[in-house]
């Protein structure tokens, strides 16, 4: 079921959004709905990852994830 939502947005931004929607052959409502869905989905994914990471406990203070990632990428791409 669809319901109305009232938003207050700067007039110039509304013009840009309407032009963008027209170029994409969609409606402003569809753009807003899709964007909000992405935000909600990303938030849910982040929360699930936080639960998983917490299950392993904290990493030691000497753990350097940037160094490990760099070493991995060098092995993978530099030959």
Question: Would you write up a description of this structure?
Answer:
The chain has 79 residues and is mainly alpha-helical. It is built from 3 helices and no strands. It has one domain (11-77). 0% of the residues are buried.
Overall morphology: elongated
Please state the structural category.
Answer: mainly alpha
What is the distance, rounded to the nearest whole angstrom, between the alpha carbons of the first and last residues? 56 Å
Strand content: under 5%
Q: Which stretches of 5+ consecutive residues score pLDDT under 50?
A: none
Question: N-to-C SSE series?
Answer: HHH
Largest sheet: none
What's the average pLDDT? 84
The gyration radius over C-alpha positions equals 21 Å
User: How many separate domains?
Assistant: 1
* Percentage of residues in helical conformation: 55-70%
Number of strands: 0
Q: If helices are DSSP runs of H or I spanning 4 or more residues, what is the number of helices?
A: 3
